[in-house]
Design a protein that fits this description.
binds magnesium ion, globular, two-stranded antiparallel ribbon, binds thiamine diphosphate, 14 helices, alpha/beta
Length: about 400
């Protein structure tokens, strides 16, 4: 994504305001540093590997992560992709109500998790199932919500992972509050909030980032720009040259990265997490990536995007890119790649088997945790559902 062509915009130096602005600028000594400069993202997304897996010259700000971390990144991406394919299949078998795939976004999903410590906090959206299984949460637990249960399936406090958030951007405020609280109590926990490109237009994103900036809360805001908010393309969502500039406006150092370059994603997020952990406040990263599947299995993406566009992104596949690089470095060979593929197959088979067990959901439990004291309306609704269930059971017996 390049900067807009300012040459085509008519010069504005003739307006009185512009003249005043110019004269004010003129009164500033030429040596005064621009305070926004240190916050600015690179002009182009940071990239450490070419799309074909060829390494680029070392980056001055983002050293390459250790090779062992990259091998683990590859392993988790392969398993994550296999999980994602299996979850999509489970929707077709009626085992899942809905599934938002993150195929194509593996470098972001797994890179973010590997950049964190186990006791850091993650604030995911509905898109982040792959990230959560990559964090070691049981995939059946991760998919519980999508089977139609009312709870998120795992213990958020034990897993240091908030429930996957469907209301857009609300997790940005939760992450700021939790991170502030942890720092207040003297702990060096970092909170990483995932967010999509479209959701950066929501008020909660701006409130969260602003709060975190003012109170120096250790949050990493990780924007996965996958080019679409359901059917709405990025160009209809924002006029900003990069979503990373949205951090700069709040005084938050920001960066943009090639989200399909796993090495760059891990390098940039590692630095962002270190910045937050060191007590310097939040950091915002925009990853340029692409959602290869429709928004969810319930969406028809052919209605709003060209097959050519999808094909072009297939050539930037993050898993193949990392594998090529690690093979060239001698860190992966045929046997290692086959072993990871086998592990991924076994993981998917186990998930499939366990998802064939019917979930035990008591419809009445829907009313249990809404309020500490249920309202009269809620009691009435619960009685109504109880009566309907009893009538249905009687009909079944007859
Ligand atoms: C507050 C709110 N408004 C609208 C929606 C409906 N909605 C669900 S997903 C979505 C698109 C979000 O796109 P983006 O932030 O780019 O994330 P992506 O789905 O691409 O990961 C919308 C509008 C919602 N869930 N919450
Ligand atoms: Mg999006």
């Amino acid at each position: 994504m390049g900067a807009p062509d300012v040459q085509e915009v008519p010069a504005v130096t003739t307006t009185p305001q512009a003249v005043r602005r110019e004269s004010r600028r003129g009164s500033r000594p030429a040596t005064t540093p621009d305070p926004a400069r240190a916050l600015m993202p690179a002009g182009e997304p940071v990239r450490l590997l070419d799309p074909d897996g060829t390494p680029l010259p070392a980056h001055p700000d983002y050293p390459e992560p250790p090779v062992e971390a990259l091998v683990e990144l590859h392993r988790r991406m392969v398993i994550g992709r296999r999980f994602d394919v299996q979850a999509t299949a489970l929707t077709k078998q009626g085992r899942l109500a809905v599934y938002p795939s993150s195929r194509g976004q593996e470098a972001c999903q797994v890179g973010a998790i590997l950049a964190l410590n186990d006791d850091d906090w993650v604030f995911p959206t509905y898109r982040e199932s792959m990230a959560l299984v990559s964090r070691g949460i049981d995939p059946v637990e991760v998919l519980t919500l999508l089977r139609g249960d009312w709870h998120c399936g795992y213990d958020p406090a034990a897993r240091r992972t908030a429930p996957q958030c469907t209301p857009l951007a609300t997790q940005c405020v939760h992450a700021a509050g939790l991170a502030y609280g942890e720092a207040y109590q003297g702990r060096d926990t970092v909170a990483l909030a995932f967010i999509g490109d479209g959701a950066t237009s929501e008020g909660d994103f701006h409130e969260g980032v602003n709060f975190a900036a003012v109170f120096k809360a250790p949050v990493v805001y990780f924007v996965q720009n996958n080019r679409y908010a359901i059917s709405v393309p990025l160009s209809r969502q924002t006029a900003a040259p990069s979503l990373a500039y949205k951090g700069v406006g709040y005084g938050v150092p920001s960066e943009q990265v090639d989200g399909n370059d796993p090495v760059a994603v891990l390098a940039v997020l590692t630095r962002a997490v270190a910045h937050a952990r060191a007590g310097h406040g939040p950091f915002l990263v925009e990853a340029h990536t692409y959602r290869m599947e429709p928004h969810t299995n319930a969406d028809d993406a052919t209605r709003y995007r060209d097959a050519d566009e999808v094909e072009a992104w297939r050539d930037r596949d993050p898993v193949a890119r990392l594998e090529t690089y690690l093979r060239a470095r001698g860190a992966l060979d045929d046997a290692a790649v086959a072993a990871v593929a086998e592990e991924a197959e076994a993981y998917a088979a186990d998930l499939r088997d366990r998802m064939h067990d019917k979930p035990t959901v008591d419809p009445l439990s829907l009313f249990d945790h809404v309020y500490a004291q249920p309202t009269p309306q809620l009691v009435e609704q619960r009685d109504q559902v109880r009566a309907e269930l009893a009538a249905a059971a009687e009909e079944g017996d007859a």
